[in-house]
Write the structure tokens for this entry.
Amino acid sequence: MTHKPFKAVIPAAGLGTRFLPATKAMPKEMLPVVDKPAIQYVVEEATQAGIDDVLIIIGRNKNNLSNHFDSVPELESNLAKKGDQEKLEKVQRSSDLADIHFVRQGEPRGLGHAVLRAKAHVGDHPFAVLLGDDLIDERDPLLTTMLEQYERTGAAIVALLEVPEDSIHLYGAAAVETTEIDGVVKVTGLVEKPAKEDAPSNYAVIGRYVLSPDVFGILERTEPGKGGEIQLTDALQELAANPDGPGVYGVVFRGRRYDTGDRVDYIKAIVQLAADREDLGPALRPWFKDFAANL
Ligand code: G1P
């Protein structure tokens, strides 16, 4: 299939109320996960999948976010003078990563509304949507597989994770059918945050989507849904229900994912990622064991 290069869209305009007061003057996507803001992991994931045009949808406190992806000449020359190459590279990495653009959401009216704000920038390119609450381990490529499935089907692609049935009400849930490809399912229906009894399955949509720009036309007429918000899930349900279109497929993710959406998961993500790191793990692991033994 020939199409224009993929772009990436990262919604980062939520209020982050679960992390107050840390998010009073800072978007939650800027909270550090070990020593990098969450949003940098997500931008790196997009660039690793070969996408170098990234649009971040920002809300209030946008300056922190845009500053992070700008160069900081005085800090850089200071580190260069000191000969601290390692730190200099860390500082420069976020500004060299990708071609990063910003657009404001204005009032937060839901994920579908945030994605619709990307319409002018995305134009007629297919695009990936990456939510900063879900971090995907760089050793377990998910987005690359999703882009391949988009190439193969021309359909909307969502990432799916099997979750315990008691957790499905926190996610978009998918009704699925198997396909001839292991790990790829056809999505026949989607419901945003259903009660356990109403969930079509325990396949949860996690925060990665690959979409054609046709979705913007649907989002424009999508009425507010769950929580009074314009839901991306509802627009995707329309695609899944259309027998004349390419539909929706799901890539079932079985790798390592770190949820940073609430405080407990955020702390777990930091502990897991730090324990795994070559520079921090050796010092931390014995301490964790000792700490756990004395709980
Ligand atoms: C959003 C989507 C939901 C999806 C989830 C993944 O919800 O609306 O369908 O399952 O992201 O993280 P949120 O977590 O932003 O409320």
Q: What stands out?
A: The mean pLDDT is 93. The longest strand covers residues 184-192. The chain has one domain: 7-261. The pocket of 1-O-phosphono-alpha-D-glucopyranose is lined by residues 111, 131, 133-134, 171-172, 192, 204-207, 231-233, 261 (CB under 6 Å).
